[in-house]
């Protein structure tokens, strides 16, 4: 765990946390246990997981088991430092009965001839191995993890030739075996995790789902946000994210769209705020470049002329913006129209090269350097350098004022622009599912054939001067912004907003909460109980089911 905090401040935080949770949870004689992972080096992620886990333990008595650890390829790809000892101390302060160093546990079996047999002990007793993962599912996790840790858009054509791929295969088998034993014992209350993809996170989720264990997925934004997949609501037909797509869409229609008249004023306020701040889903655009000053069509037209000239575009012709995703970011994590994110981007560029009746702006992901070691975006750009109607550039090269004034149609896979652009009247085509893609904000396509038809239809409509986004889509998108940024963003003193940093400020704020704010005033316990008892797919700030619950 990366901390960068004053040691005295950290010690005071641990002391306060230990007393707070000892008083709020008491002793736990139950042999049931709750599993929570701490694989991310950022202490803010650990805080969110542990806070939700302990809120569940107040409802269902259970011991706390923390799974942690770090492995060299993950360390090289992502972490600056990771200290398991710090994780162990923090876990103890939050009342953990046992901390498991996953990579120390699986290292031996992964290097042996039988990597799928991993002995796991808990509370001094061995756990029986659970049912094994399917070879197809295991291969999907291996490929996704390989792409992430090597920062490559695709797995190798011949996996046997790359020792890094074989290493991931051996580790994945061992990790899955360990999780099957840990989560398949029949005594697990829940799995709480910050991520649901790749090997040390995603394989835990897969084991939990096969064992019928509820999975709570915390988010790294805002105050406290979390999604949940309960076994009785899990069809098993999709990935974890795919299941949530359906459930969140239904929840949104039932609890938000049906009460849009009550929410409309607040939704308008959030839509205004989202134009000028850094909070997700507009995380890709912050600071001065985040501000949008356009208030009417006349201002948009004047800015459009200016920015079009900068890019060599004709302001009178439609502009389609294609937002490249981080190319190794959890490929296959949800339903995609194309086999990989790279395939989608390359095929879209090829299509654009022949669709010269409109202009194309290809924007790269601002954090691509964390996900790509192959120069993928620039290599595609070079192929089409002679096409004057196509411009490739990093997204940060264009302010939101420029983006809003230029773009007539947005195209993405699952990026946040697909819920933000429609909120301001800009239509979007999604070549894949996201958590909001069943909320009626954008045009969602499920396969390449439908994708090309949707692009053709949108281009024809723009050339004919037709409107391709409805008033209902705009309102739904604004309601989604409210739902995501307000209704499902729980304010609790235990978990300061993500922007509370550096670490000393964060620890001091939480320590103050533990020492001076009475726990019966903390909304996290009521909110988690509501989500847990009703088996709702999302944590909400207030009760959206009852009249007056929207505020």
Describe this structure in words.
- InterPro entries: RibonucZ/Hydroxyglut_hydro (IPR036866).
- The structure is a single chain.
- With 551 residues, this protein is an alpha/beta fold.
- The protein has helices spanning 7-25, 43-59, 72-77, 84-93, 102-110, 135-150, 163-183, 198-211, 240-255, 260-274, 297-311, 341-354, 376-383, 400-406, 417-420, 448-463, 471-487, 503-516, 523-534; strands at 33-38, 63-68, 96-101, 120-122, 125-127, 188-193, 215-218, 226-229, 319-323, 359-364, 390-394, 409-412, 428-430, 443-444.
- Strands 3-2-1-6-7-8 form a 6-stranded mixed beta sheet, with helices on both faces. A 6-stranded parallel beta sheet has the order 11-10-9-12-13-14.
- Helix 6 (135-150) packs antiparallel against helix 8 (198-211) and helix 11 (297-311) packs across helix 14.
- The radius of gyration is 24 Å and the shape is globular.
- The two termini are 37 Å apart.
- Mean pLDDT is 92; it is low at 278-284.
